[in-house]
Amino acid sequence: MHSIFDFIKNLHDSGHLQVLVRSGGVPLIALIVFAETGLLVGFFLPGDTMLFVAGVAAASIAPNGETYLNIWELTPALIVAAIVGDQLGYFLGYKTGHAIFTREEGIFFKRKYAQNAHDLCTKYGVNAVILAKFAPVLRTFVPFMAGVGTMNYRKYLIVDTLAVIAWIFLVVWSGYLLGERAQKNLSYIVAGIAIVSMLPVAFGIVKGFLISRKSST
Asked: What is the residue extent of each domain of the chain?
């Protein structure tokens, strides 16, 4: 159990992320993106921070004189991985989704995450797909809940594809354009990205708390 928590903690450490990105390359990064978007247990994976670090690695020169990653391979691979992951999440939700509200909670599953994603889909419809791309946890659960709610698939696919492209380009290319200039303060930048990306989730939690408190009084 201790090793599992250490692994999760390391995934959000800028130094370990750099090593992971540089050693694992495009295939491993794409696999993590797929898991975060397509598998409910992937909500804890480092989405935005890893993409930014990958962008920095694509602009940084390795000892062999080449960049650690090729930006022209990285970008389309991550777009495909995220789109495929989202479709898997949608169809899992479509086929088995309602059972999630009676599923037993564990380390890698909290029912409140599913409920928050469900509420977002109910309130914003297909626009929730766009909003979720820029918020961890919701990024994992919203595709699933879109399937649970039988959101029109054609509309979902179009909006989701555009949202994925915007998400990948914004985060990866921000790291790439900053390049080695970001290296000196990478830990602070990664921490800042993590905090900013969690704001929508935190806002939703606070809003839900205030509403429930108001209704109780």
From this structure: 2-212
Helix (H, G, I), strand (E, B) or coil at 192: helix
Return the closest-CA partner of residue 43 out of 95, 90, 93, 89: 89
Residue 67's DSSP bridge partners are 61
Q: Which residue has the tokens 């804890």?
A: 44
Q: Is the pLDDT of residue 203 over 70?
A: no
Q: CA nearest 100: which of 147, 35, 155?
A: 147
Tens digits of residue pLDDT in 162-199:
999 999 998 999 889 887 766 666 665 655 565 555 55
- Residue 209 is predicted with a pLDDT of 42
Torsion, Cα 71 75 76 82, to 10 degrees, reads 150
In angstroms, what CA-CA distances link 96 with 43, 90, 93?
A: 18, 10, 5
Considering the entire predicted model, what is its pTM? Answer: 0.78
